[in-house]
Every structure is written in structure tokens, then in C-alpha cells.
Amino acid sequence: MQKQLIQQCNLAAKPVITATQMLESMTDNRRPTRAEVTDVANAILDGTDCVMLSGETAIGDYPVETVDIMAKIAQTTETESMGESIAELLRQREAVGQLSRDNLISMTVFAAAHSLTPTVICAPTDSGETARRLARFRLPVWIVAPSQYPSLCQSLLFSYGVFPSTCPRPNRWQNAKGSANLPSIGCVATVSTMALCLW
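The chain above was modelled as a monomer; its predicted structure follows.
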């Protein structure tokens, strides 16, 4: 059931948070069970955007250790390529004429990202849709999402690989790179290749 829900959310480009008793045994123990580690890894492989702890850190005896373990599991698991499964599902929809224009655009950017190997993808947004649609592919580069709306930037923090940045809406694309404050996330000043998604 969880796999199906995550897949449906990914197809709809909605952020997914998997929570509740992810590492429950660490409330009282320093180490998680193998089953818990597997559950966390599977949630990430299934395409969840966030894994969340609750009682383990709120009332548990080992909150710092629990966060460290969760981070290690996530970092190890995220090295696997997960975006291809969503791309394949979208290709199947395209074959029968059921692919929306927005999904077609995101698939085109996904393909371009694989062939051009950009340093960063810049997806200026007023709604967050473009950044969320790109996030489901689990690209190996940051998706910078400049927006003039602070509340939208906060909600985009839940999307995998998205770096939202509050900035005034630029009048020209040449201004977008400077407005998004790209150097602050470790990008080099002169980006070798940048895939851009238009407003």
C-alpha cells in the first residue's frame, strides 16, 4: 500500500513524507533493528521525499544517534538511481497519449539533464509545479527554484533535491542566475552547463 501511495504521489508531483515509527526501537536502544533499516531504505527507494522521526527523537533516550543513523541510511540509499522508474511510467503514459504537457516538459528536462550533465537546473516558479515535477526524477544535481513567494519556498523544502530561493521575479533570464543566489549553495561562479526551465 505504501509503495502505491508513494508512486501515485510521485506521478502527481506531490511531495511525500514517510513517517511514524521509522526507527522505533531506538527509543530505548542505541541501534535499530535490521527490519527498521530496511524499511527506511525501502521508503527512500520507493521515492519518498522525506523520512521523518517522531517519538524516537521527542522522547527517546538516543535522539542524536537516531538522527545520525537515519541520515546515514538516507545518504547510502540515495546513491541508487530512482528516477528511471518514474520516467518509465511516464513513457508508458506517453505511448497511449495520456501524458500532460507539464509532464512532457519535465521528461524533456530529465533527458537533457542526462545528456548535458548540468551543474544545476534552474526552475523559476510561481507555483512550485515545475520544481516538484523535476524532483521526482531524483536528479544528481540541485534544482534551484527561485520564487517571489516565501511561503512557496518553505513548502518546496520538502521536495527532494530542490533548493528554493526567495527573490524578486527577474525581468530577464540573465538576471535569474544572480537573483537565485547560486553561489550560496556551492555552485561555481561560472556554471559550465545549466539547464533552464522557463516560467
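Strands lie at 17-18, 50-51, 120-122, 142-147, 162-166, 194-196.
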